[in-house]
Amino acid sequence: YCTSRFLGPRVGRNNVYHWRKGFYVHGFKAFKLNGSRKSVSLIHLINSEITKVVLVKLSGVCYVIIFAKAFTLKGLTRKLSQVKFDVLEETCFPNIGLSLRRIPLKIEHASLNISRNKNCLLVIEKASSGTFYEKQLAKASLFSIAPGFVRIHQISAHDLVDMRTINRIIYLMTRPIKQRKRLETIQIGKRVGKGALRNVQISLKPHVGIFGTTGMGKTTLLALIARELCNVNCKVLFISMSDNLPLLTNFKYLVAGVHFSINPLNSMTTERALEILEEGSVAMYGDTGRFSPMVRAILEEVLRKCSRRDLESVIRELNNKLAREYREDVKRGIEAVLRRLHHLYCPAFKVNHDICRLLIENNRIGISLSSIGSIIGKCVFVLTMLNRILDYWNDNMPQLYVIIDEVHRLVSSNHFREPILEVMMREGRNKNITLIIANQTLHDLHNTIRANITTYFFFRLPNPVDSNIAASIVEVGDLKVRNRIASLIQKLPLATCIFYQDGTWELIRVRQLKVQKFRHNPREIAFKHGADYIKLYS
After folding, report:
1. How far apart, in whole angstroms, are the C-alpha atoms of residue 314 and residue 34?
2. What is the largest CA-CA distance in the chain?
3. pLDDT for the residue 6
4. Tens of pLDDT along 174-223?
5. At what angle do helices 293-305 and 270-285 cross, to 10 degrees?
C-alpha cells in the first residue's frame, strides 16, 4: 500500500509524505517494529520540531508514525530523516480507515488491557508550554481501533498524562506477543468399551457437528466444549436459536435488542440484504417463503429511495407507496413486503452494532435471542451477524469458534441458493473460523452442509431416517455393520454418544457438567436500559 494514497494525491520524497497547510509544510514518516525484544522510547522525540508521534498496532504488528512541520519541504525531509532507531525500519503505512473508541488513560486497568490487544493506537503530543510540570507530563490518548473512515493524520491527543503511564503503555504495545498454540485436543469424557473407562481427548478440526434428540446431552457437550475453549483463552461466540443458552463463567452475555442490535438493511449491499431476508423466510416456510419478482422489485425500489435505510423509514415509505398505488397486483406485493418486514419490527434491528469489534474486545460472547419473538427475526439476526463475521475475519486474526445450537432454523434442506452458513463452513478454515453446530435431527440439514463437517457426535436419534444417515456416515462399506450401528444410535443411553473422526469411531460417555440456563428478568432489563417493556418483548 502506498502511504501517499493514504493522505490523498500528495507528493512523496525520500519516503517522507507531506502536504501544505497554511504557512507550514506538514508531513510524516512511517516505521515498522522489526521484531526486536528491545523496547522503544518515543517520548523523547516530542520536541519543537516533532509535533506528534503515533504508535499503531494492527493484528500484532507495530507501526511508529512521526509527524513534523517546517517552512520548506527540504527542511521537513531533513527533520524526519534524522529520526533513526535500531529496532525500527522504514515502511509504508497500510492504506486503511479507522474507527476509534477512546479509552480514558485515568482508568489504569482499562488502558492496560486495551494496550495488550492486537489492535490499538496511541497518539502522543507535547504538552503546552503553560502546563504546570510540563516536563513530567505529555498529551496522549489511547484508542481501540476497528475498520472505519478516520485517517491517521486526523487523530489528536486529548488527555494530560504522566510520562510513566505512557511508557508503560508503550512497553505493553511493543512487547512481543507469544504465539499461542492452536488448541489440538480437549477432554470431553471417557471411552466406553472393554476394560476400565479411559479418558478420551478429541481434536477440534473444522467443522464439528453434534446431533441428538432433546435431553440426551447436546447442550452439556456444547457447554463443555465452550468451557474448555475458554481455559485456553480462545475466542468463542455462542449462539442459541432457542432460549436454551447455557450460563458459563467468563462469558459476556448480550441480549438482542437490549445490549446489541443489527440493522440488516444498511449494514450491507441491497442485493445481500435481500438475500438474507429471503433466506430467513425460506428457512421458516420452505419454498413458499421465496420472494416473487414483484416483491424483490418493490424492496429494491424502496431501499434505493430511503437514504437512512432504517426499518421505520422503509415501512413509512412502503405505507406511502401503498396509499398512492391503484393497481391491485402491486398493492398485494406491497402488503406482502410489509408482512415480511413485520418480523423485524423490534429493537433488535434498530441500531447497527459491530459484532467483530465486540469479538476483538471480548474473547467470549454469548448472544441471547429471547427478546426476538419471531423465528424469522431470529434467523435474519443471526444470518446478518454471520455475514459480517465472514466479511471481516481473516487468517491474520485469532482462531474464532462459532457455536450454534438448533442450527436447522438457519437453513433449509431444500435451499435454492448457497446459504451463508454453507459459505462460512467452506471458507472458514482459511479465515480461522471453526463452526460447532448442534441439531436434533440430521435430515433437516442439506447434504452440502453435512459434507463440510469432519467431526461428528451422535447422541440418541430415535428417528430411523436420522439414525440411518448417521450410520452411513460412520460406516460406508458393510451394510450389516451399518444396520447394527443405526440400531445402536436409536438406543444410546443418556450422555453417551458415538464420536466419529478421520474414518474411525468410538463410544464415549460425556463428562458430567452442571449447566444452568442463562436467565434474565425482562422487566428489569427494560427498566435498566430505558426501554419500553411492551414494545421490547411484543
Report:
1. 51
2. 89
3. 41
4. 776 554 444 456 778 888 875 555 666 677 777 899 999 988 888 889 99
5. 140
Split at pLDDT 50, 70, 90, the class of 528 is: low
CA distance 235 to 229: 8
What element of type H or E holds 389? helix 375-392
pLDDT at 101: 82
Cα–Cα dist 363/361, whole Å: 7
Q: How far apart are CA 499 and CA 507, in angstroms?
A: 6
pLDDT digits (tens, 9 = 90+) for 138-156: 888 888 887 777 877 788 8
Q: In the numeric block, which cell numbers belong to residue 282?
A: 425460506
Under 8 Å between Cβ of 76 and 18: yes
The number of helices, as runs of H, and strands, as runs of E, in the chain is 17, 23
C-alpha cell at 209: 457437528
The beta-carbon contacts of 149-152 under 8 Å, at least 24 apart in sequence, are: 149/97, 149/98, 149/99, 150/97, 150/98, 150/99, 150/100, 151/6, 151/7, 151/97, 151/98, 152/6, 152/28, 152/54, 152/56, 152/65, 152/93, 152/98
CB atoms within 10 A of CB 396: 12
Nearest to 426 by CA among 462, 390, 468: 390
Which residues, in sequence order, are bridge partners of residue 33? 88
Query: Does pTM top 0.90 for this prediction?
Result: no
Here the cell at position 5 is 494514497
Q: Tens digit of pLDDT for each residue in 96-153?
A: 678 888 887 766 655 666 666 678 888 888 776 655 445 577 888 888 887 777 877 7
User: Are residues 56 and 63 in contact, defined by beta-carbon separation less than 8 angstroms?
Assistant: yes
- The rounded distance, in Å, linking the Cα atoms of 415 and 472 is 23
Query: 57 pairs with which residues across the strands?
Result: 62, 120
Q: What's domain 185-263+348-517's superfamily in CATH?
A: P-loop containing nucleotide triphosphate hydrolases (3.40.50.300)
